[in-house]
Amino acid sequence: MPASALLALTLSSTALGHQFDNYAYDFLFRLIQPAPWKPGSVILAIDEETLRRYGGNAGIRSALADGIAKIQPAHPAAVAVDVILAEPSTEEIDARLEAAFAGTRNLVLASYLLENNTWNDPIPRFRKYAFATGHVQASFDDYDSVSREVPLMKVGGHDRRWSLALDAFRAVQRAQILESPQDLQVGAVTIPSKLRDFTVDGRTLRVRYPPVAMGGLPRVSIAELDRNPSLVSRFAGQVVFVGETALAAGDSWSTPYSNGKTTPGIEMHASEYETLAQRNFLVDAPLLPVIGFCFLMAAAAGLIFFLGSGWVANLEAMGLVLLSQITPALAFRNSVVFAWLPGTLTAALSVAAAATWRHLIVRRELARAEQEKTRYQKAMQFVTHEMRTPLTAIQGSSELISRYGQMPEAKRKQMAELINAESKRLARMIETFLSVERLSAGQMEMKQERFPLPELVERCTERARAFAERKQIEIDVEALPADELSGDRELMEYAVYNLLTNAVKYSPALTRVRVFSEDDKGGKVRLSIQDQGIGMDKKEVSRIFEKFYRTKRAEQSGEAGTGIGLSIVEQIVTQHGGTIHVESEPGKGSRFTLILKRAS
Ligand code: ADP
């Protein structure tokens, strides 16, 4: 799960990741628009009509002079001019423009950073009337040319300029700009804008373009002003942004709203001003909470599928994915830009990973249950089969006795003995099966007796030898220490006998079974039973204590078995505080070692 968060964060930090985040930003920008406000700025536009009237580009300066002179009676709060005035024009026109500037309060003129890193400033003749000269360069995202942020500051050589809009803003605020690494302070307004570096776009600001409901910022063209002088009143007390809106000027760009349509540069400056004046700041969420959010999502996905499954878990996972979508939206509503992609990717990746994990687990459990069932069925078949044999013998013998009254005494005795032996066998079998259940349910009461180890082994080997004879297998018991054990002798006997009969069952004829004891440094009693039989591989060894488990080799050996014996042996040994170890190699043989507590 943490891997999916890491992967998501890594993918999000690529160029493609940023682009996706930008699209998400644009989407939220359109989805969650601020309430319309009363603009503090007006655009004085040099539009197509104005250009026609003043004779094209050559007439821009004279249009500017006329326009600015005409709005003067309305006493605008400031006038920001987005026209580069770096060269003199004819004396007549420049004199008119100078006169217009001279009568303008809070005039802000435009500078442009040239390729050679020097500033293209207005000629001194105009500049001397300017409160400030601000840069007019926009900034665009590398891959889609959408202007989401603007540089508040630009550095060229040793010279730095604030943006045109910020200069206009500080002019009307009548305040200096106080700088700190985190923000700029203009009068009472704190502009959140981190100082990234002192190179090109050292500080940026996300522009809150006016909502669609406002239908753009107020705009009056110079030509319109000529036709309808009453429009002058619109400029009263406003911050005026003067610039070209004619498409031919080429100064027009995309915004998150524009969806393909472009916005003139002058409108972008005015929007930047509105963002400042309205204090409508969008702040990027710091990295740490975003990373934390991702890891939390990943952990939640893991938890959902660890604790639950089925449709409940799926529903919860959907909730998680929804949360990854709602969080950036809620943040945006609170003017915080919370990166969309890391959370979304984390949710998707970790839900997919966790669901896959769950699926695999469920499948494995299902397969295991199936196996268990078939094994159980097989065991049941075997049990019923095994029980039928003594039952048939008992039935047959008893029928014979009752049918033939005149049976010779010797024959009758033989039959009675058979009945007795078979019913004892049946009882033992039933007892064994019941023991497993009781032992595993913890209902079995163990006797507490003391008994010597050699005697116990002796009794078991005695019984096992009869069983081993048919295969001519020899059971060698090496000298055993005279240690005493404590616990339930009968159960211990069952365990040792079982290991012995297994050794015989799973060995070829004419081999040997060794029973011996080795010194144990931990003060315990070790009893080993080693055969030269079919053996097992590691995987099989790890499963032989499961109920009903039999190895393939054992099945193929033709020896009858239920796969229950060892599970009982293990339980008996652990109930006695001991352990059981198995070493085995296919084809070579096995060695079962009991490590038991000595009687105190
Ligand atoms: P079973 O009734 O099949 O003998 P057990 O529980 O006694 O059941 O043993 C489980 C399985 O462990 C056996 O079926 C066999 O595959 C394997 N096994 C037990 N003892 C030996 C041994 N001495 N050599 C090889 N395989 C053994």
Query: How many DSSP H or I helices?
Result: 18
Mean pLDDT: 89
According to DSSP, the number of beta strands is 25
Largest sheet features:
7 strands, mixed
Helix content: 40-55%
Strand content is 15-25%
Broad structural category: alpha/beta
Overall structural domain count: 3
- What is the straight-line distance between the termini? 52 Å
Shape: rod-shaped
> C-alpha Rg, in Å?
47 Å
Bound molecules: adenosine-5'-diphosphate
Question: pLDDT below 50 for ≥5 consecutive residues: which ranges?
Answer: none
Topology, element by element:
Elements: H1 2-12, H2 15-31, E1 41-46, H3 48-54, H4 60-71, E2 78-81, H5 91-102, E3 107-113, E4 119-120, H6 124-127, E5 132-135, E6 149-151, E7 153-156, E8 159-162, H7 164-173, E9 177-179, E10 183-186, E11 189-192, E12 204-206, E13 219-221, H8 222-227, E14 239-244, E15 252-253, E16 263-264, H9 265-278, E17 283-284, H10 287-307, H11 310-333, E18 336-337, H12 340-403, H13 409-441, E19 449-452, H14 453-468, E20 474-477, E21 484-487, H15 489-505, E22 512-516, E23 525-530, H16 538-541, H17 552-556, H18 565-575, E24 579-585, E25 589-596
Parallel strand pairs: 1-13, 1-14, 2-3, 2-14, 3-5, 17-18, 20-22
Antiparallel strand pairs: 3-4, 6-12, 7-8, 9-10, 10-11, 15-16, 19-21, 22-23, 23-25, 24-25
Helix pairs in contact: 1-10, 1-12, 4-5, 7-9, 10-11, 10-12, 11-12, 12-13, 13-18, 14-15, 15-18
The structure holds adenosine-5'-diphosphate.
